[in-house]
Amino acid sequence: MSRRVSPKLLLTSLISLTLLCVWLSLALGPLRLPLGETLRALAHLSGLPVAANDQALLVVGQIRLPRTLMGLMVGAVLALTGVAMQGLFRNPLADPGLIGVSSGAALGAALAIVGAEYFFALPIGLQPYLLSLFAFMGGLIITAMVYRLGCREGQAHVATMLLAGIALTAMAGAAIGLLTYLADDTTLRLLTSWNLGSLNGASYARLWPLLGIGLAVALWLPRRADALNTLLLGESEARHLGIDVERLKGELILCTALGVGAAVAAAGLIGFVGLVVPHLLRLLVGPDHRMLLPSALFGGASLLLLADIIARLLLAPAELPIGIVTAFIGAPFFLFLLLRRSV
Amino acid sequence: MKIFRLAIGMLLWATAVVVLSADQPQRWVSAGGSLTEWIVVLGGESRLVGIDTTSQHPESLQALPKIGYQRQLSAEGVLALRPDMLVGSEEMGPPPVLDQLRKAGVRVETLSADANLETLHSTLDKLGAWLGTPEDARQQFNQYSQTLQQLKARLHAAQAQHPAPGVLLLIGGTGDRPLVAGDGTLGDWLIKQAGGTNLATQTGYKALSSEMLAGLDPAYIIIADRRLEGAAATQALLKQNPALSQSQAVRSGHVLPIDATVLVGGLGPRLPAVAEHLAAQFYPQDLAEPVAKKP
Amino acid sequence: MLKAEGLSVHHATGWRIRDINLELRSGEVLGVIGPNGAGKSTLFGALCGDIHPTSGNTFLGAKPLTAWPPAIRALHLAVLPQASTLSFAFTVRQVIRFGRLPHATGIKADTQIVDTVLDLCDLTELSQRSYTTLSGGERQRTHLARILAQLWPATSNKVLLLDEPTSALDPHHQHSVLKVVRQMADQGLAVAVVLHDMNLAARYCDRLLMLKHGQVEGLGSPADVLRPERLKAVFDLDVLIQEHPVHRHPLVIYL
């Protein structure tokens, strides 16, 4: 395994990459701001006594900054929970969707989008928040059901959970199909674009809940790196190494449900990051979670920021859904690594 | 003295500019098909700096930057066009983006897209005021409602002789899975203005099975195809929905293609002419093809 | 050190083990033998807490097994399962280091212990190899080394359960591995080991437990348990038993 990158080097490069992406995300946009303006606005926002022009302040402070922070959190959370799920299922091809959180969130979102037109006449200004709330709750409820179905005699059976996840995902899919059928043209369009995710419309109001949950997940999961490592040996092996396996499984599922739920509520469904970032980094640093989790945090954040920059610039002044971009960047890179490694 | 006069002149000019730009936004972004058309009709085409994807008419606008779909506007994308004004329907969004635009000093105006004359009246009043052509706007509205009034009167006479025909209006892309215009839609409004009876009873645009379509047996089918025009649209529709070929409409050649872009947004400027054209088809003996050009 | 009282496990198909009483003492190696399906693995599962017994109890030291907090129990009881699957590319050293997780002895001491068990299990040269590239026998030795690291150093309050630790090993490594186990028992460790090779069992074990249909068929010194008539009844094998010319333990000669 001499081809693995030195962990310290990789982590340092990932952190630098993340910082670079943060800077680019703050500096680039369809509205071209001179470099000096951006810097002055940032200095002003961080409380320094620097005068900045109003428009730069608004664009950097109200549009790009919340959007960047949101991208950071969404990317980090998706990649981290991807690692957690691959550890829980002891399968490098697992992704956060397996325990039903994504399909639950999608169902919640569909209910909110379609239902808003049919059942409850809400002021249109409240609708985005209703959508986030429904997506978050939908993810939690379906995950809780999957977990309950997988539990027998106080033990969570991972294989049963996997199957329960598949069944409930299919059911959620059918329900979404029904709602899609009921939906009219415009609603349908909204639903489709939600399913591809976007950081457009990021605001502080939507950022805070995600930031809270995301930070909690990002701080908690790395603490369980050793336990996750032992879980890869098998549940019984982990138990004999002193791990409270049932508690660990509960924590992993809770972190994933909350984290992915919050990410999806804020930015819609963004596929691919949770599956590929951990997989890709595992090829580079190996499976040790003590390295993998921090790497995934920064790797996921960088990929998402990069994808968002492309999403907002490519069709400017219009925007591309970010899920399309993550797949377009990630998939070829992933294939490249896969082919290179297998030689 | 010369300097004094120059100074006065400049002051006056400056005031005029300030008043003008405060009252009448110079750089417009329009997010709504029919609104964009009205802006063009009222002489505001040169002020448009960006349009959304639903603004597809007239052709001359297509070189303008596109800000995407009206419900998924990007704050920075719109700001990059440096507009003073963003107009669109109530569907325009997402709301956080509109808030950000307002904070950036962009005037955001939402106008109802409901298909009725009162709404159109207030829309035109507002657009006229903002564009500085209130008189023109008033005239346009009067002409619009007059055309429809006259059509109604002639239809009244015609309907004494002939019963109103049963009509379906289908929106589709190359004939596949067409959506049927139901209650509350612009399509429904158009059928009624042209003196037809809408056979579809649901609300909104819905896909009906081809069996249902055939069962309704319309005397006329209006087809608004997004991709095909004229006879090609008719052919595509029949190819994808063979069950329709037994209907009265198809057997007697009463499939009427119209331009799909007239149905985007609220009441657009081209609708009265389309209504007149359709009415002439519904009542061939009583209403000759009107003077207005074919859509 | 480890005591089973009336241990029984019932499954849909019947009793897997029934009413087993057993005491595993510090410093001894107990060999468990029996034909396939005799209940050896079930017994181990019930002894280490992986399987909840239908009735009966297991005690580790003075306390019931279930009363031990997992993290503390891991300091006193280590288990080598029959088969372990690991599809992630950890290095051999990393896998063995997992055995030190329950301890807080510090990186330096841990590294020393890992080096020692690497050497004992003849894995030093493979220490940087990825687990997924190892052969079956190398994998088995890696897990054994992990378990040894977990209980290192061997003292009289620790228990080691090994379910067929030699099944994938060549004869050389079968002996070298069991010698290490024997040494650790001599230092005070209590060991129970499932073996299929009766001559290996006779050579390295102090006592043998013979199981048939989930019940005890014999428990005692190898010479007491390995009788031709008993082997015929339990395994349906015709054998001669002689004394090993060098080591003096019973030698089973298959006819």
Automatic annotation (TrEMBL), chain A:
Keyword Transmembrane among record annotations: yes
Taxonomic classification: Bacteria, Pseudomonadati, Pseudomonadota, Gammaproteobacteria, Pseudomonadales
Topology within the bilayer: Multi-pass membrane protein
Family statement drawn from the similarity comment of this UniProt entry: Belongs to the binding-protein-dependent transport system permease family. FecCD subfamily.
Locations listed in the record: Cell membrane
Cited InterPro entries: ABC_BtuC-like, ABC_transptr_permease_BtuC
Transmembrane region(s): 69-89, 98-120, 126-147, 159-183, 203-221, 252-276, 296-315, 322-339
Protein name: ABC transporter permease
Entry-linked Gene3D superfamilies: ABC transporter involved in vitamin B12 uptake, BtuC
Domain of life: Bacteria
Keywords tagged on the record: Cell membrane, Membrane, Transmembrane, Transmembrane helix, Transport
Main subcellular location of this protein, as a coarse class: membrane
The organism of origin for this protein: Pseudomonas asuensis
UniProtKB/TrEMBL annotation, chain B:
Annotated signal sequence range: 1-21
Protein name: Heme-transporter PhuT
Pfam family, one: Peripla_BP_2
Gene3D superfamilies per record: Nitrogenase molybdenum iron protein domain
Encoding gene per record: phuT
Domain Fe/B12 periplasmic-binding stretches: 27-286
Superkingdom, taxonomy of origin: Bacteria
Keywords, ordered alphabetically: Signal
Record keyword Secreted present: no
InterPro entries, per the entry: ABC_Transporter_SBP, ABC_transptr_periplasmic_BD
Annotated source species: Pseudomonas asuensis
Automatic annotation (TrEMBL), chain C:
Keywords: ATP-binding, Nucleotide-binding, Translocase, Transport
Superkingdom of source: Bacteria
Residue intervals of the ABC transporter domain: 2-238
CDD domains listed in its UniProt record: ABC_Iron-Siderophores_B12_Hemin
SMART domains linked to this entry: AAA
GO terms of molecular function: ATP binding
Listed Pfam families: ABC_tran (PF00005)
The protein's role, per its UniProt record: Part of the ABC transporter complex HmuTUV involved in hemin import. Responsible for energy coupling to the transport system.
Protein name in the entry: Hemin import ATP-binding protein HmuV
Organism the protein comes from: Pseudomonas asuensis
